[in-house]
Design brief:
Largest sheet of chain B: 2 strands, antiparallel
Strand order of the largest sheet of chain B: 1-2
CATH class of the largest domain in chain A: Alpha Beta
Helix content of chain B: over 70%
Structural class of chain B: mainly alpha
Radius of gyration of chain A: 25 Å
Largest sheet of chain A: 8 strands, mixed
CATH topology of chain B: MetI-like fold
CATH superfamily of chain B: MetI-like
Order of helices and strands of chain B: HEEHHHHHHHHHHHH
CATH superfamily of the largest domain in chain A: Periplasmic binding protein-like II
Strand content of chain B: under 5%
Order of helices and strands of chain A: HEHHEHEHHHEEEHHEEHHEHEEHHHHEHH
Shape of chain A: globular
CATH class of chain B: Mainly Alpha
CATH architecture of chain B: Orthogonal Bundle
Shape of chain B: globular
Structural class of chain A: alpha/beta
Helix content of chain A: 40-55%
Oligomer: heterodimer
Number of strands of chain A: 12
Chain lengths: 444, 294
């Protein structure tokens, strides 16, 4: 090696050596004698800030007393990563998942059942509203704890209500009254194109929960063995969607719906006052405050087919302990801290969600960013509140349900035929899963 | 004997990083995926052998037939169109004009933009009401379609967007063009060939090995199309499953539905399809590809 080459190598290598020696460190310095608890969570950005603060406080106080150090790791696609890590035998100690995934994970044996463990570690579940525990159960066992729960309601534009001659203090309670509102709130230009729409079930325009509509017609979809789309009540929901599309004009609706842009911003058609009513969760008020602070809106439960029965969709982000977690005892200590009412309500308030407790503390409402949070809280008390169907093959069924809704929305098939075809596909999916489960049980 | 054996051992030792890597990271996973394709395997439970059930189920799966049809259609539209556009652009960029390197950079730069960013930009450009594409069509009196929301137009929209990424093949065609001997053009000119005839009889035959290479790469890439439709359509399948492709269904089966056995069977079928198509392209190309060395 000549001198020039040696000099060049030194010049290139020296910065690397210096960076290695004195450069930034990725991890926090963990105090000695602490058990490091890996906590994977899906929240990033603004949503992760409250939890990071709580973790930091835990590490400083309870964690210091009990010798636990929680490492908060924001993970995209957290359910898939948790699944793969669990299959690989190296899961996190706690993971923050969505409730809809619980049956699938639990049925695969990926989660620790928490009924007994919660009792042993003095986690108080009695103070929680029953619906939030219900959605954390699968096959009678508790596999998760609610972190930030929410109900979904009807946001409506009060100004547009007034302009349409509707009383903004009397939001619709039944589907029939709702249809009348939609009619009166829909506006067109001279060419017949829709310029303002009352409501849409389109997945492309804020209709995130595309499977949910039969529930507002009092349907019972999953009975533990079969997902029933072909009942009169479920069929009525798809007939209703098709009839409204026919009435308002499918091509005009499709063109209007195709203009939907980003949800967080003025491309959101509800914020832009182009869509008068929308089925959304309590976080919507954050977007309103940021992008349309002058918007005059109200919140009500979504109408059901009869005024007597109040069907409410309830869902939650959840905490789970994956099977094979290295420190389940410490994970439960941390969960006990998180499930304290003051801690969990702080998290829920800052994430603009409802409180999971039967009796929220007064300061929960006082400092809540959603002025209508009490409406969402009341909805959770409905005896007809429902969560995702507790079926382990729901992910696959859900894609078929999306296809069904698309068929009805676009008029690809008459609603009756579309439902019948989807029922066959859903039956096949469920049957295949059940066959697989039987084969697994029969395997040596 | 000992010397031969010693040489063999030395050779094996020095090539160990490659063959160990090959065995561990390629051969073993391939073998395992072949085995899993004959099993029920939901990832968190041990695989259960089910024979050829996954393959027979695939044959009866209407969605499988749909994704195959979609992927074939995409390949049939995107590969010829992409090839024609790329060759024409390469010929234009090969002309000795001022600012040639700037034009070349303009064509190539879009290919280094992340696919997700490309998808988001095109979602906006193709928005029926606010998008630039329909605004441009309106200027010449044409009604713009619902590009992303119509089953009829969604596939064409995707093919159109895929042309945005034509820069890589253009660079390869450009290199191919510069490799064609100028003497052939001189001979053609002396024989009185027009520019069009020069293109047909000199440029295209000279470029044919490069076209073959790009077509094969295009066939493989079209059977792996994923990111653009995944981001551009909220339902991740497009209206009426019109932009639901093979790799997307494979991914859904593996990571959404936890049907690893079914997904592995799909992966092997995909491998065989790509192998067959590549073989077909080679066979069809025999009479049309001209190698200078032959």
């Amino acid at each position: 090696m000549n001198l020039r080459a040696a000099l060049l190598l030194t010049l290139l290598g020296l910065p690397a050596v210096l960076l290695l020696a004195f450069g930034p460190r990725g991890a926090h310095d963990v105090p000695a004698d602490r058990v490091v608890l890996r906590y994977w969570e899906k929240w990033t950005g603004v949503e992760s800030v409250p939890m990071e603060r709580i973790v930091e406080r835990f590490n400083r106080t309870v964690g210091a007393d009990e010798g636990i150090w929680v490492e908060y790791i924001a993970v995209s696609n957290v359910e898939k990563r948790t699944l793969i890590a669990t299959a690989g035998g190296d899961p996190p100690d706690i993971a923050g998942l969505f409730d809809k995934i619980i049956p699938q994970f639990a049925d695969q044996g990926a989660l620790l059942p928490l009924d007994q463990l919660a009792v042993e570690h003095e986690i108080d579940l009695a103070g929680l509203r029953p619906i939030w525990l219900e959605i954390c159960r699968y096959d009678g066992r508790l596999y998760a704890l609610p972190s930030t729960p929410y109900t979904i309601g009807l946001y409506y534009n009060r100004r547009l209500f007034r302009e349409a001659g509707l009383d903004p203090d009397q939001p619709p309670r039944t589907i029939a009254a709702f249809d009348e509102c939609v009619r009166r709130l829909t506006r067109r230009d001279d060419g017949g194109a829709i310029t303002q729409l009352g409501f849409t079930t389109s997945p492309g325009m804020l209709g995130w929960w595309h499977w949910v509509w039969p529930m507002f017609f009092d349907a019972q979809l999953w009975d533990g063995q079969r997902y029933r789309l072909d009942t009169p009540r479920a069929r009525a929901a798809y007939d209703w969607i098709a009839a409204r599309r026919d009435e308002l004009g499918r091509p005009q609706l499709l063109r209007f719906e195709a203009t939907a842009g980003a949800i967080e911003g003025m491309q959101n058609p509800f914020l832009a006052e182009r869509l008068a009513m929308v089925f959304q969760g309590p976080w919507m008020s954050n977007w309103i405050a940021s992008y349309a602070p002058e918007l005059d809106y109200g919140v009500a439960p979504f109408p059901s087919v009869t005024a007597e029965r109040r069907n409410v969709f309830a869902s939650s982000d959840v905490f789970v302990i994956p099977r094979g977690a290295r420190h389940p005892r410490e994970a439960l200590r941390f969960l006990r801290y998180l499930m304290r009412q003051d801690v969990l309500e702080e998290l829920c308030r800052l994430q603009c969600k409802v409180s999971p407790f039967r009796e929220p503390r007064p300061d929960f409402f006082a400092g809540h960013p959603n002025p209508d949070i009490a409406v969402f809280e009341q909805m959770a008390d409905s005896p007809h509140a429902f969560g995702y169907p507790a079926m382990p093959m729901f992910a696959e069924v859900n894609t078929e349900l999306l296809h069904l809704l698309e068929n009805v929305i676009r008029g690809t098939l008459p609603p009756g035929q579309a439902v019948t075809a989807s029922q066959q596909h859903v039956d096949a999916i469920v049957q295949r899963y059940q066959d697989m489960a039987r084969r697994r049980e029969a395997a040596p | 004997m000992s010397r031969t054996r010693g040489s063999l051992l030395t050779g094996l030792l020095w090539t160990a990083p490659w063959w160990l890597g090959f065995l561990l990271w390629l051969a073993l996973p391939l073998g395992l995926s072949l085995y899993i394709s004959f099993c029920d395997y939901p990832l968190l439970r041990p695989p259960v052998f089910v024979g050829a059930k996954n393959y027979t189920d695939l044959a009866a799966d209407p969605l499988f037939a749909r994704v195959i049809a979609n992927t074939f259609l995409y390949a049939l539209l995107a590969i010829p169109l992409g090839t024609v556009v790329a060759v024409l652009l390469a010929i234009l960029l090969n002309q000795p004009v001022r600012g040639q390197s700037i034009y070349r950079a303009c064509i190539f730069v879009p290919t280094i933009v992340p696919l997700v960013a490309v998808a988001v930009v095109w979602m906006w450009l193709l928005n029926p009401e606010f998008g630039l594409v329909n605004s441009a069509l309106a200027l010449v009196g044409l009604p713009g379609p619902l590009w992303l929301e119509s089953p009829r137009w969604a596939m064409l929209a995707l093919v159109f967007v895929s042309l945005w990424l034509v820069g890589s093949p253009v660079v390869i065609y450009l290199a191919g063009l510069q490799d064609i001997p100028l003497t052939l053009y001189e001979a053609a000119r002396i024989d009185g060939a027009s520019p069009l005839r020069q293109f047909w009889h000199v440029t295209l035959p000279g470029l044919s090995p490069v076209i073959l290479f790009n077509v094969i790469i295009g066939v493989i890439a079209s059977w792996q199309v994923f990111a653009l439709p995944y981001v551009m359509w909220r339902t991740q399948r497009g209206p009426g499953n019109s932009v639901y492709f093979y790799t997307m269904y494979l991914y859904d089966n593996a990571f959404q539905f936890l049907k690893m056995g079914y997904a592995s069977a799909m992966a092997w079928v995909q491998f065989l399809i790509i192998l067959a198509l590549t073989g077909l392209v080679f066979r069809l190309s025999r009479r049309h590809v001209h190698y200078r060395g032959s």
